[in-house]
Amino acid sequence: MADLRQVTYCGLYCGLCSQCSRAPQRAAALRECMQKDGWDQWGKELPRFAEFWEFLGGLVECEAKCSCRGGECGPPFCGIRKCAQVKGIDACPFCAEYPCWRIEGLAKGYVTLLGDGQRMTELGLDRWIEEQEARKATGFCYADIRCLPYEVPDR
To answer: Where would I find the H helices in 16-124?
Structure first.
């Protein structure tokens, strides 16, 4: 049985999101650089540095907590998540109404979403997850190809 923690309901893969991959890595590099320069020692004398340092630490730890499915990441108001949970489906591509207006709005920004959804149903979740992990290993990130604006429905 597939581990769905990194599979969003809409059909994206959490491991390909900048918030879960690139941002934590870059935040860790920045924190390490700043620690070498002594910021963690003397920066606390600067206004709002404590809040910044805490925020930076949160970004570093974000990768371990990323899961749209669990509600730890992604917009808390996401109507796609709400709809899928009500319907009891593992992912939207397995819904009889796919792609619905919610998915079509999101697909305006995530240009691989519909194709990835088709592959998910063709391959099954286990093989699809393996494929997404292989993409992740290349450094691929949705932010590199995302188009703005797009819609995240709230209902």
So the answer is: 22-36, 39-42, 49-65, 79-87, 101-107, 113-123
For range 125-129, the mean pLDDT: 96
Give yes or no for a contact between 69 and 7, defined as CB atoms under 8 angstroms apart. yes
What is the end-to-end Cα distance of the chain in Å, rounded? 30
The pTM for the full model equals 0.79
Confidence of residue 64 (pLDDT cuts 50, 70, 90): low
State how far the Cα of 19 lies from the Cα of 143, in Å rounded to an integer: 9
Contact (Cβ atoms closer than 8 angstroms) between residue 6 and residue 129:
yes
Rg (CA), the chain: 18
**CA distances to 12, 28, 138 from 104, in Å:** 13, 35, 27
**Helix count and strand count (H, E) for the chain:** 7, 0
Residue 109, classed as helix, strand or coil, is: coil
Q: Say whether pLDDT at 1 is over 80.
A: no
